[in-house]
């Protein structure tokens, strides 16, 4: 660490920091456009110009004669940074006036309004009037720039973050700067739109409203959105994300920076893959075959297997509990539970401890783990080849679920080993409790055959499946956006996810269903459960703190058993 002074505030900073990062540690913002922590430094926008000097051994201070870009200027012991001098303020005003010369000032119809650095910096560091009395240069908007992205060319401040992203992170290099001077603009090569699997990140990187997401365009003003910290469930990378919703509808997912997980970015599959949570086909009501005779007769006659009358859960849960106990009493080792890699650690723990608490001879298994192709590594080379080991900047993983590692830890604790439900073959189990939670049809032939037509079938899921169709009891469950809990990613990072919306109609978050089913007192509380799990299961002791922070915690001595088995 080195000591630097920013506007007379002394801070300890990393010698690898630039002036922007050092100032941030002192709580001081140096405005910037072209600089981004994950991209190379070009120092082209000049928004970050500051005064920099140093303290001489005799204690005197020598400031540099010129302003320097804070993004490109390293710090050392004794560096002095001034961001509040009249020289700096005049420079900031001039830079902003220049950037706004040809800007259309169409904030009222711009999607970025409310989270735009041109608006924010102009308000904080700019001036109220422009001296331009020439007509502004107008440029064509480019809707063709990508399947998911549109370019509002006039709004661009030519920071080139988007260009550098496609060269340095995706490696696909579709975006470029064309023309020169005040006529330069961002464009794609003919017939080569920016459609790589990470393309959506350029919208987040764009500090102004130039690159916009077509998916979100004109859907909602950003100041109406409420945010929740969550984790993408699209693959085992477990990207930290922010879920933005309004009025119980999710409008967009954006990456949440996490140096322990994926860094600053996310893939488009995860970014746009959340729509299923609002799919009309979701299971919205719990269902019970052959409900007891004391259930509302009208409801039973109009909807025999769908208890869509007010408050169906007490009936369904009481009946399910009765049937589970009776099935386990009759044939304990014939009662099989299938835990899903889409469940959270807390949900799996609740179900496992409930069933094993009735009879330890019951069997806990792991449901299908979806794997598609192989890991997709970035940045790509010129021919689309993967980067060499050590050069990987982003990975979309082949394992398309968020929590195999967390569920396996639960299974090892309660069952001693991980049994794959699919490996049971056409089993003779008499009762099954199967949990799904995947957005795509996860019931494959093997699991379908293994389950067969038992005397009791309970299914907890979000979409109908061949299993839910023939189930005796169906629990209408919650999607990732409707639940609190913990996922453990491919590298043993345990991250907490937070509910952002309510489940549709009478569906419930899985944790709440399982708390009630197990007859546990109180409301579902992920943090309290993490403390309980962490103290009882040594493999998961790292989560005993309850609060995993915004970046999560790593499991001690973590081994990715599936990866280890593959490589041996
Ligand atoms: S489109 Fe956005 S990210 Fe790209 S150069 Fe322009 S302002 Fe920067
Ligand atoms: S890489 Fe995986 S976890 Fe990250 S956004 Fe894509 S699908 Fe989601
Ligand atoms: S952020 Fe430093 S010059 Fe652009």
Provide a quick synopsis of the model:
24% of the residues lie in helices and 18% in strands. It is α+β, with helices and mostly antiparallel strands.
From the structure above, extract its key features.
six-stranded mixed beta sheet, Ubiquitin-like (UB roll), 3 domains, alpha+beta, 24% helix, Rossmann fold, elongated, binds FE2/S2 (inorganic) cluster, binds iron/sulfur cluster, Alpha-Beta Plaits, 568 residues
How would you sum up this structure, described in words?
With 568 residues, the chain is of the alpha+beta class. The chain has 3 domains: 2-98, Ubiquitin-like (UB roll) (Roll), CATH 3.10.20.740; 102-221, Alpha-Beta Plaits, CATH 3.30.70; 287-480 and 510-537, TPP-binding domain (Rossmann fold). The chain is 24% helix and 18% strand. The chain contains 15 helices and 24 strands. The chain has helices spanning 19-25, 86-99, 117-125, 161-168, 201-205, 268-272, 297-302, 313-330, 345-358, 404-415, 445-451, 466-469, 510-518, 526-536, 561-567; strands spanning 2-6, 9-13, 49-55, 61-63, 68-69, 79-82, 149-151, 175-178, 185-188, 211-213, 226-231, 240-246, 249-255, 287-288, 335-339, 363-366, 376-378, 394-396, 431-435, 456-461, 473-476, 485-488, 493-497, 553-554. Helix 2 runs antiparallel to helix 3, helix 8 crosses helix 13 and helix 9 packs parallel to helix 13. The longest helix is centred in the middle third of the chain and has 18 residues, at 313-330. The chain is elongated and about 85 Å long. One iron/sulfur cluster (SF4) binds at residues 156-162, 186, 205-206, 208, 210-211. The site of FE2/S2 (inorganic) cluster (FES) has 12 residues, from loops.
